[in-house]
Amino acid sequence: MTSRTVITGIGVVAPNGVGADAFWKATQSGLSVLDRVTRAGCEHLPLRVAGEVRGFDPGAMVEDRFLVQTDRFTHHALAAADLALEDARLGRADYEGDPFSVGVVTAAGSGGGEFGQRELQHLWEQGPRFVGPYQSIAWFYAASTGQISIRRGLKGPCGVVASDEAGGLDAFAHAVRGIRQGSRAMLVGATEAPLAPYSIVCQLEYEGLSTGEDPERAYRPFTDKACGFVPAEGGAMFVVEDEAEARRRGATVRAVLAGHGATFTGTRRRDTSGEGLAHAIRGALREADCAPEEIDVVFADAIGTQEADAAEAAAIADALGAYGRKVPVTAPKSGTGRAYCAAPALDTAAAVLALEHGIVPPTPNVYDVCHDLDVVTGSARAAELRTALVLSRGRMGSNSALVVRKGS
Question: Span of the secretion signal (predicted)?
């Protein structure tokens, strides 16, 4: 990333709040919203605890004609995109003269499971005449990119990143590429909705999925009681722009996308992901022209198993050297759940807000850290923050790191 691409808008739909302000208030306080799964049809399934987005009324933010065409994960994306555009003060009038100058990139891991399950039930119970026409597109993981583009009239470069959970960070690199190639702005981010019955059944074989029944103990990364992660829904969308263009129109620069690195280790074993993650971190630092000691906070991937957490701790120590044992590390997702591709997008939102407020949010439900890391627990920690490192690993071997600098 040689030219500066900046974040000017943030939109969040998360288990702990809708909107960046509500999300940050809950995140910095260390609020845990993990609770028993309440979605219809899930009562008999082994997954007991998750991070659900509650109190979110998609009909209050998205027109009916788009709601009926799309799954819950796209409802989250459409709403988060609106919030990001509003935050960036980028309206249709700003680009309608050149709609090809604004593009969309999203990442998703599973697509529209709830929509797909409903239509397949119609097929088997009532026959093909009762399957809606949008079954062909609503389940697809690219649906959010397409529907945001159509609804907002955005005709610039559009795409979807399919690189496992790490795609939530890799999408930023694709957005930066779009800016470098001439786009004036890009909408980028990730949302998920994996809490429908069919989707949960598909996840039950995931290595590391926690089936604990106590919300306070089901997801405790970096502890000797770590028993895996719990899934979550929601996500975040961002407006990113060329810095000169953003300042020309008077936008507030909330953060700078300074560097990105990615690797693929080609393995399902997360305990061996350390080497690939360390290489991704070094790549992100190199692209950002950032020394290890310049990193002021690390937003960890925090899978929540002994082996995977040890591998991440080793990767941080490998890439940052002795400084890796001193830098504050946090994993707010232990209080909201791990939203697959959307997890690093939410972490990026938290990182930007942490830089703005000079506060490292705590890691909920974590007290007895058993790895050689300075994990922030209990309550938030005030600090002078200029640069954050966000990490993500995928279930099938993708590793990604993003360096974000404070806006000015």
Answer: none
- Judge whether 286 and 259 are in contact, CB under 8 Å: yes
Q: Could you tell me the two tokens for 294?
A: 């310049």
Candidates 389, 388, 340; CA nearest to 168 is 340
Report whether 41 contacts 196 (CB < 8 A): yes
Rounded CA separation 247/261 (Å): 27
Task: Specify the 3-state DSSP secondary structure of 147.
Answer: helix
Distance in angstroms (rounded) separating the CA atoms of residues 266 and 268? 7
Minimum mean pLDDT among 62-71, 111-120, 125-134, 247-256: which range? 111-120
Task: Name residues whose C-beta falls within 8 Å of residue 190's C-beta, 6 or more positions apart in sequence.
Answer: 106, 107, 108, 167, 168, 171, 235, 236, 341, 342, 344, 345
State how beta strands 398-406 and 255-264 pair: antiparallel
Q: How far is CA 169 from the centre of its chain?
A: 7
